[in-house]
């Protein structure tokens, strides 16, 4: 065998065969070949880094700025700070307790609606469809001390006939707690109703036969079985109450009631702007949010312990009761019907007053609003920013879900990505808005005052919702369709385009519907990153409310609700019937 018959193998060893010859005694260096798996690994790593930078960069700048120029000292030596901390604690505890009690009761009674009234189980969700800033505005029209419609009616009763204002003052801490708690109760209802639906009534009946009272069965059997739903509902309620901004800002301004989020807003609207103190107040909210988000996993552990389905013999909990009709009807009336009715009355009245005179109703304010450049621009921006964010965040959520569900070979990337995509859930939107101002208001990336920073904030806030809905859909599909396609000879691209994407259509529709709903309502983060050319509906409504243009406020609130419903309808139209079920 000659020298020319020897080659270097892939493992760096000499071997016979045709190939590139080498001289005897030359160094034997292995040749590195770039394989598809290397490219996939590099792509996954770069994508995880991109998502990590998008989420973590604003958080880093908040922590970094809080330590500059005595940010903590300025924030926590402020004479108003301890009052704000105390109010935040009281608001959080009160709103969470109220939301858990009301939301759980609504979910329990929704299973006991009489035959023919099952449609009422959808009524508690109406308060979610109503934008928060519009809902609070409706409460102002109802319970403003002097000219609130509800207060005017109450003053006709003998108990309060001698009063010229009240008897309810919506601009107080108890009513801020009530408004916040009732709004959050709708989210608790969604979690708890799905949990109660999965409980097998055979277990309830067995406990009752054993001699336990109905109250005892509820606390000893039913609630432990829905522990995952209860944990998720409690965590969500705490996060929403802790980061509450809309109700304290709109209702607390008359009595100078402040919480941590409104205190941050005050620092950012002072002259000069104190970014360091605002960031210092944001750090505790970030830490608490992270503890809550990742602490709920430790509380749940192995969730298979809570499965109560018994196969074909499964029977859901629920005996018909008219109590459910009363509970659900009262909640829908108080949180959706009355505020919406008050907004409509103000919108068609010449001006907001305690007297309602139908003969004076007019559509003039609608005409003025539809011809107002400021209002039209804000509506256009809201729709454009929301749709653009959806087009960006749905693919990001799809890739994140694919890595989390199918990427077993990228274990480390899965762990990091799972941590990163959950982080926006634990932080108030106002904090993320502050982080984006700090991160993108100077070199090398200056986006302040542009639509890009608004879209970037929206995309980051919506990543967890996009990932959760799509990953849940992928888990329910399993891997059999993917494996069957690959066995048939299709590569990864064809499998994704021809199999996975069509099967995910309903999940895309559900994610788009939820994201559009949330973004069309978004107010807190938009208040921080807005500019004169990037106003959205929520920020414009706040400016109109500050100027006392109540008729225009009412019209814009109705436009916000209409835009939300139209967006939901289009998302469900594209996603099919399964989109509503997935949502």
Please tag this protein with its features.
mainly alpha, MetI-like fold, 2 domains, two-stranded antiparallel sheet, 26 helices, 4 strands, 2% strand, disordered N terminus
Summarize the structure.
This protein is an all-alpha fold.
Fold and architecture overview:
The protein is mainly α. It has 2 domains: 34-66 and 363-583, MetI-like (MetI-like fold, Orthogonal Bundle); 84-254 and 321-361, MetI-like (MetI-like fold), CATH 1.10.3720.10. 68% of the residues lie in helices and 2% in strands. The protein has helices at residues 36-66, 71-76, 81-110, 126-129, 132-143, 149-154, 173-197, 201-209, 214-225, 227-242, 246-252, 260-268, 275-300, 323-348, 364-370, 373-406, 411-422, 429-439, 451-477, 480-487, 492-503, 505-521, 524-529, 537-547, 550-575, 577-582, and strands at residues 6-8, 14-16, 441-442, 445-446. Strands 1-2 form a two-stranded antiparallel ribbon. Strands 3-4 form a two-stranded antiparallel ribbon.
Chart the SSEs and their pairings:
Blueprint lengths: L5 E3 L5 E3 L19 H31 L4 H6 L4 H30 L15 H4 L2 H12 L5 H6 L18 H25 L3 H9 L4 H12 L1 H16 L3 H7 L7 H9 L6 H26 L22 H26 L15 H7 L2 H34 L4 H12 L6 H11 L1 E2 L2 E2 L4 H27 L2 H8 L4 H12 L1 H17 L2 H6 L7 H11 L2 H26 L1 H6 L1
Antiparallel strand pairs: 1-2, 3-4
Main sheet properties: 2 strands, antiparallel
- Poorly predicted parts: 1-23, 302-317
Average residue-wise pLDDT = 79
Following the backbone from N to C, one meets helices and strands in this order, namely EEHHHHHHHHHHHHHHHHHHEEHHHHHHHH
Question: For the CA atoms, what is the radius of gyration?
Answer: 28 Å
Helix proportion range: 55-70%
Structural class: mainly alpha
Q: Structurally, how many domains make up the residues? A: 2
Share in β-strands: under 5%
Alpha carbon gap, first and last residue: 71 Å
Number of strands: 4
Q: Tell me, what's the shape?
A: globular
CATH topology assignment of the largest domain: MetI-like fold
| Strand neighbour order, sheet with most strands | 1-2
Count the DSSP helices.
26
């Amino acid at each position: 065998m000659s020298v020319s018959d020897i080659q270097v193998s892939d493992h760096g060893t000499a071997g016979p065969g045709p190939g590139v010859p080498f001289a005897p005694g030359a160094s034997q260096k292995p040749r590195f070949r770039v394989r598809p798996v290397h490219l996939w690994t590099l792509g996954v790593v770069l994508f995880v880094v991109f998502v990590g930078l998008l989420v973590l960069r604003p958080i880093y700048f908040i922590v970094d700025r809080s330590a500059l120029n005595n940010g903590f000292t300025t924030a926590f030596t402020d004479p108003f700070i301890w009052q704000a901390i105390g109010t935040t604690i009281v608001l959080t505890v009160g709103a969470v307790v109220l939301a858990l009690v009301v939301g759980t009761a609504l979910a329990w009674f929704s299973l006991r609606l009489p035959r023919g009234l099952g449609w009422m189980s959808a009524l508690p969700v109406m308060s979610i469809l109503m934008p928060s800033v519009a809902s609070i505005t409706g409460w102002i029209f109802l319970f403003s001390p002097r000219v609130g419609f509800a207060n005017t009616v109450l003053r006709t009763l003998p108990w309060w006939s001698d009063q010229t204002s009240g008897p309810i003052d919506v601009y107080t801490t108890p009513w801020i707690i009530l408004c916040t708690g009732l709004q959050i109760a709708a989210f608790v209802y969604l979690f708890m109703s799905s949990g109660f639906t999965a409980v097998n009534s055979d277990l309830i009946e067995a406990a009752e036969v054993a001699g336990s009272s109905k109250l005892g069965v509820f606390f000893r059997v039913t609630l432990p079985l829905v522990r995952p739903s209860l944990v998720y509902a409690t965590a969500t309620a705490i996060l929403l109450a802790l980061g509450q901004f809309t109700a304290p800002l709109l209702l607390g301004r008359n009595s100078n009631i402040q919480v941590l989020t409104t205190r941050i807003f005050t620092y950012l609207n002072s002259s000069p702007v104190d970014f360091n103190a605002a960031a210092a107040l944001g750090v505790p909210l970030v830490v608490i949010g992270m503890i809550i988000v990742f602490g709920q996993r430790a509380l749940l552990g192995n969730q298979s312990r809570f499965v109560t389905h018994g196969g074909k013999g499964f029977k859901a909990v629920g005996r018909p009761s008219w109590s459910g009709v009363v509970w659900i009807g009262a909640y829908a009336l108080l949180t959706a019907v009355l505020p919406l009715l008050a907004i409509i009355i103000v919108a068609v009245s010449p001006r907001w007053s305690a007297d309602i005179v139908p003969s004076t109703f007019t559509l003039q304010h609608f005409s003025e609003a539809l011809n107002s450049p400021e209002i039209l621009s804000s509506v256009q921006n809201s729709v454009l920013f929301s749709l653009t964010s959806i087009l960006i965040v749905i693919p990001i959520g799809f890739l994140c879900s694919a890595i989390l569900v199918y990427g077993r070979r990228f274990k480390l990337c899965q762990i990091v990505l799972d941590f990163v995509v959950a982080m926006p859930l634990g932080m108030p939107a106002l904090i993320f808005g502050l982080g984006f101002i700090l991160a993108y208001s100077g070199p090398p990336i200056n986006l302040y005052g542009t639509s890009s920073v608004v879209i970037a904030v929206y995309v980051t806030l919506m990543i967890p919702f996009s990932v959760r809905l799509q990953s849940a859909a992928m888990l329910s599909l399993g891997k059999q369709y993917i494996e069957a396609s690959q066995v048939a000879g299709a590569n990864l691209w064809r499998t994704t385009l021809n199999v996975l994407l069509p099967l995910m259509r309903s999940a895309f529709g559900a994610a788009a519907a939820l994201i559009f709903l949330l973004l069309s309502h978004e107010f807190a983060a938009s208040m921080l990153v807005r500019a004169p050319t990037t106003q959205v509906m929520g920020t414009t409504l706040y400016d109109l409310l500050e100027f006392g243009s109540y008729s225009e406020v009412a019209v814009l609130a109705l436009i916000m609700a209409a835009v939300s419903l139209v967006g939901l309808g289009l998302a469900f139209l594209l996603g099919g019937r399964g989109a509503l079920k997935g949502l």
